[in-house]
Design a protein that fits this description.
Elements lengths: L4 H28 L9 H30 L8 H23 L16 H19 L8 H19 L6 H4 L2 H35 L8 H16 L12 H28 L2 H6 L1 H25 L1 H7 L3 H30 L6 H34 L5 H47 L2 E4 L2 E4 L1
Antiparallel strand pairs: 1-2
Helix pairs in contact: 1-2, 1-3, 1-15, 2-3, 2-7, 2-13, 3-4, 4-5, 5-7, 5-8, 7-8, 7-9, 7-13, 8-9, 9-11, 11-13, 13-14, 13-15, 14-15
């Protein structure tokens, strides 16, 4: 039975993160010094960075679902062939998107800046994923744990919000700026909610398996996070749409919901940490560390979200680097740390700790370098954003000159973040690569649906 599909997605996700970090660092220096690396202008570097970062989140979350269902939950995939098709469609389409960016072929909107025709295979691949997922989990006759509901909700709402993000193709939306902005930013806010569902579901699954406490995935707190996440997914997008005129209470309510969701996630991780024995912490010490880091970043971002939700503060911070700091803190500090915890859980669950000893030093040092650099990165953005938001001097050029030292700190810290995460990624890449291709080498023929198939 081909149980390496999830590992293939994780492998591709790790490569996407490594490349995203590289293009992110180049983007930071290109923003500061426009004459730097003239062959790659900023308008190419930024979408390369963003698309690869989004791909990292989805690929790794999808890989976790494909790996955990058959290997740790005992549910045979409904269709191994569909899972393979999903992988190859994602890979080929991803390469086509990267090629389009490098050639300067654009045509989309924020997040999806590639030519719209490339959205069709992406949508098709997610339909395959949805059919495979629901026909697999339906095998479980007992009550579903909360992560089943989270993963399923993330899949369904990705399809809905991804389709919604292309409504601009219709003249009714495209020809009215307010209408297009409202729909675009609404769809993107909900899109983030869909990947949060996949990531948070993965976090709860990993915590359950490390602790051995299946009750936590059926608890009121866990389902409270699910329902708040669902509500936030459907309505929490409102605080992303400040350029669009509508009632102020809608934005404030959306902020409240999103902050409550973060608080409950942080509380679940905090309580889980306190419930573990020393043996459990050391048996899965790397996933434990990554989830601990995610918890710290949950509370840092929660404090920042509380501050910028106050109208008086939001007046000065919206549209500045403060919002970028919040986004990066969430994407890297929370989502990326959870997904790295998922990957290292797979490795440490599959291997004895001694199997990773040759690379453990690199990963452990990288963990501290990445989190330390992220904190400097985060603080530099906050200071730059506050200076920009309160600047009362002359020209825009003068204002940019005043924040340039902090943007330089941000860019240099980005190098440290990249190097730290690369140190974490490299051991995982090596080990997953060896697992995938050693499986292939040992099993050139597999049985699928009663038929022998070549890998």
């Amino acid at each position: 039975m081909a149980n390496d599909t999830g590992l293939r997605f994780m492998l591709l996700g790790l490569l996407a993160l490594a490349a995203s970090l590289f293009f992110g660092v180049l983007s930071a220096f290109k923003f500061l010094y426009p004459e730097f690396l003239e062959a790659l202008p900023f308008h190419k570097l930024r979408p390369l960075h963003v698309s690869l970062a989004v791909s990292w989140i989805f690929l790794t979350a999808i890989g976790g679902v494909y790996y955990y269902l058959p290997n740790l939950l005992g549910l045979a995939l409904f269709s191994i062939r569909a899972a393979r098709w999903h992988f190859w469609i994602f890979l080929v389409t991803g390469l086509a998107i990267l090629g389009a960016y490098l050639l300067g072929q654009f045509g989309g909107r924020e997040y999806w800046e590639f030519p719209p025709v490339l959205a069709l295979p992406i949508f098709l691949s997610w339909i395959l994923f949805a059919v495979n997922y629901f026909n697999t989990v339906i095998q479980r006759r007992s009550a579903w744990p909360v992560y089943f509901w989270m993963w399923g909700t993330g899949i369904v709402f990705f399809l809905l919000t991804f389709a919604e993000s292309y409504l601009w193709l219709f003249p009714y939306f495209r020809e009215n700026m307010a209408r297009e902005l409202a729909v675009q930013w609404k769809s993107y806010g909900s899109l983030v909610g869909s990947w949060n569902m996949l990531v948070y579901g993965t976090a709860i699954f990993v915590m359950e398996k490390i602790s051995g406490n299946e009750a936590m995935a059926h608890s009121k707190m866990a389902f409270g996070l699910f329902f708040l996440g669902l509500f936030n997914l459907m309505f929490g997008w409102a605080h992303h749409t400040y350029p669009v005129p509508f009632a102020e209470w809608v934005r404030n309510f959306a902020y409240f919901v999103s902050m409550t969701e973060l608080f409950i996630l942080g509380k679940i991780i905090w309580d889980w940490r306190g419930s573990l024995s020393d043996y459990q912490k050391h048996r899965f010490r790397r996933p434990y560390r990554f989830l601990f880091a995610a918890d710290i970043w949950v509370f840092i971002n929660l404090v920042l979200a509380l501050i910028i939700s106050v109208p008086a503060f939001n007046l000065f911070t919206h549209g500045t680097h403060v919002i970028v700091a919040h986004t990066m803190g969430t994407t890297i500090g929370i989502n990326t740390m959870i997904l790295l915890g998922s990957i290292y859980f797979v490795l440490e669950q599959r291997d004895t700790d001694s199997a990773l000893q040759t690379v453990s030093g690199m990963a452990d040092h990288g963990y501290w370098l990445a989190n330390g650099s992220l904190l400097i990165f985060f603080l530099a953005l906050l200071v730059a954003g506050l200076i920009k938001g309160t600047y009362s001097g002359g020209s825009f050029g003068d204002m940019m000159a005043s924040i340039e030292p902090f943007l330089l700190i941000f860019a240099v810290a980005g190098i440290g973040l990249m190097m730290g995460l690369w140190m974490v990624l490299l051991p995982a890449l090596r080990r997953i690569y060896s697992l995938v291709f050693s499986v292939t080498a040992r099993n050139p023929m597999r049985v699928e649906n009663g038929q022998k198939t070549n890998l």
